[in-house]
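Hi R.,

Here's the input for the iron/sulfur cluster complex you asked about:
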Amino acid sequence: MSELHDECGVFGIFKNDDDLNIVEETYLALYSLQHRGQVGAGIAVNNKGKIVYHKDYGMIPEALPESELARLGNGRIALGHVKYSSGEDVDRGNLAPLVMRYIKGQLALCMNGALTNYPELRDDLNQGAAIFQSNGDTEVIAYLIARARTETTTIEEAVQNAVSKIKGAYAAVLMSPGKLIGVRDPMGIRPLCLGKIGGSYVITSESCVFDSMGGEFIRDVKPGEMIVIDDDGIHSYIDDRVGKTALCIFEYIYFSRPDSVIDGVSVLKARQRAGRLLARQHHIDADIVCGVPDCGIESAIGYSMESGIRYATGLIKNKYIGRAFNNRKNNDEYLMRIKLNALKYNIEGQRVIVIDDSILKGNTSRHIVELLKKAGAKEVHILIASPPFKNPCYLNSDSTPKKNLIASEKSTEEICKYIGADSLGFLSADSLKEIVKECNIGFCDACFTGNYPLDVSDTSREDKYSQKIK
Ligand code: SF4
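And here is the predicted structure with iron/sulfur cluster in place:
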């Protein structure tokens, strides 16, 4: 149960089937992406160039009530977005899709990722008297597109012009009056894929969406690719900047659902492999192995298969914690207490191996050890299905500062003592290439190694960009 915040989830659909209810399909798709963000959700529908939308705080049922869905009507193209979860307040203006009016009518946009040159771009736009409603990257991209559109003849050219100015990690979907467009950053840091539901095309963050909608996966959007869908079908454009690729390996470790396949690798398989490798790297005399829900479970199963130690459920996660609880101040301790419970029946008197996806601050691991010991575990051995997380990530929506990352300050022994475990072990850094060995692009592992795939020296977002609009 990573302490890293989730990513955002994006979805776009271009309807070619008369009987498809585009709002309903988008709503269902967002349910499949809920794990990527629980702070807010939104849907925008494009009916002959007129865009109607609704977005709000909360998980899907709270953010998108039936009455609002009915108001959205029907249309040809739609976008959907789920916003990442964070302990911080989120400006209302940062909820997505962002819908704007500009020289060519209306445009809607949503994204997953983070721009590394956001401060520079924002300052530049500020100098040009731009007026912002949010402190988010999406609005900066929207401005760049709007500005480019005054000098270009097509929306495709305007988007290409805008993305040539941005640096960082992004997977974005947008809709103009007649087109659905998906863009993935040149390094492919954030995932994006293309699929079909009946005759209608979909661009979204994860392939699990197609399965739950009864659709089919076509392919991943390539790093640096812009896909445009219109009445004439699918068109593809590749960014000149494509070179080294660096998919975020945390998509396999934590962000994505186990039933997704990203750039040729099954998330489930990657997690099980991490568990098998942990078993080879850390032999422990124990009675049972269990996983921390959700992401540690598949690795625990992998560990069990490799070691022969019995797999058992040791922790139960409460999946029904909504925004009201997430918004409580100083709620970390409450949240941990209400989120996880130990299964005494399986744990009591046992020597337990517990597998989790990662350790950031160490508080969750400490809580888990305490829970299991209280439930009567004789020994608690913590294994982590990734290497020590030592460096902040500047390439997603959340960047925990280095000083808060326990592995950047303490040795494995010191962390073990802090969390109160009988032993602690991590997956070796070399194992990362093994767990994603079929991946058809390169990967980023900077949070473990410090080798960032691009310049992250000026990514600070000063408070001057923030405004709280509740
Ligand atoms: S630094 Fe870590 S979390 Fe960030 S993109 Fe790279 S692998 Fe993913």
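One thing worth noting: The chain has two domains: 9-246, 271-437.

Cheers,
M.
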